[in-house]
Amino acid sequence: MKNKRINIRNLILLSAFAGAFSVIGCLAAYADRARVEAYPADISGDEIVSAVASSIDSAAEEVLASSEDLSTETIQVTSEEAGATLERTVFTVTEYEAPVTMYTSDTVNVRNGAGTDYDKIGKLKWGSETQVTGETDNGWYEVSYGDTTAFIIGDYMVTELPGTPLVFVGDSRTVQMQMAVGSSDKAYIAKIGEGYSWFKNTALSEIPSYAGPGTTMIINFGVNDLANASKYINLVNSNIDAWTEAGITVYYAAVTPVGNCSSVSNAQIESFNARLQSELDPRVQWIDGYTYLSQAGFSTSDGLHYNNDTYRSLYSYYMSVISQA
Question: Is domain 93-158 annotated with CATH 3.40.50.720?
Fold first, then answer.
């Protein structure tokens, strides 16, 4: 196919000549009228026409010379480029004999084709029950979405209701983190003023209701009963086998620092944290929020609890540690 070329300079010059000759004709007519009237009476008509034409030629040359400083650029556009269309992922669908119920294992985009180059037409939250009508040859599922057929990438679809992505287990600080960051795709097993006894007798039995395959669980107890370090260590270590077999990834979040607090000192917190970090089962991963807030700073009105900005900052730190694991 031949290239289509557009020469900008030619277009500019054609426009310039069209306007210039219009102006030149008028100016020359007025200027040369005076000359014609000044010519001797016996000069011929042909000689007058020749003189006027010479004036127009001179004016045209001046216009051309003034246009030489115009920048020129040639743009080449192929006919293939002009008619090109956006290429999309090509796929085939194997339809199921009957729809299959599946669940989303995370918040996931719903698209109008089996590829990330297709348009997003919606979004499903974690745990959404979805009717799957087929699967593609490139790892996507065809699903019923409202009144239409759509596609979800297979990495985020499971046959059983998955565990909640994040489960937080703790005391009043966990309760307040929930208030600061919200509960979407998260579960909180927490109560104000509680510690080891509530963890053992109440929270422990509630964990299986929320945590399952793919769940990350963050435990944060201790600020209300720092003397119970040994009991926390034994309780967590005695349950790590069951949690691991259930597909749960377990983190223990360090007790974070206090401000001007009469009931708890940072020296006591540091001692508690050091024991747990060294004696917890290696499968329990450690999140050092204490050092993070000590360096990043925090705001507290009562010395013990933080404001929402501090809780959001601490939550972001938790997520950064988990994402790098």
Answer: no
| 166-324 CATH fold | Rossmann fold (3.40.50)
Q: In percent, how much of the chain has pLDDT > 70?
A: 74
pTM over 0.90: no
pLDDT tens digits for range 128-143: 899 999 999 999 999 9
Give the residue from 325, 321, 293 showing the smallest Cα distance to 173: 293
Give residue for tokens 């749960």.
Answer: 248
Q: How many CB atoms lie within 10 A of CB 296?
A: 12
Domain positions in the chain: 3-82, 93-158, 166-324
205-252 pLDDT, tens per residue?
999 989 988 899 999 999 999 999 999 999 999 999 999 999 999 999
CA distance linking residue 10 with residue 102, whole number of Å: 64
Q: Are 259 and 249 in contact (CB under 8 A)?
A: no
Q: Which helix (H) or strand (E) holds 266?
A: helix 266-279
Of 296, 285, 295, 290, the C-alpha closest to 321 is 285
Task: Check if the beta carbon of residue 297 is closer than 8 Å to that of residue 314.
Answer: no
Answer yes or no: are the C-beta atoms of 167 and 217 closer than 8 Å.
Answer: yes
Residue 196 C-beta-side C-alpha neighbours within 13 Å: 13
How far apart CA 240 and CA 203 sit, in angstroms, is: 15
The residue with tokens 């900052």 is 313
H or E element: which one contains 179?
Answer: helix 172-181
Looking at the DSSP bridge assignments, the partners of residue 123 are 109
Q: Which residues of 211-220 are buried (b: 16+ CB within 10 A; e: fewer)?
A: bbebbbbbbb
Per DSSP bridges, beta strands 93-104 and 129-136 are: antiparallel
Average pLDDT over every residue of 73-86:
45
- Tokens matching residue 83: 């008619």
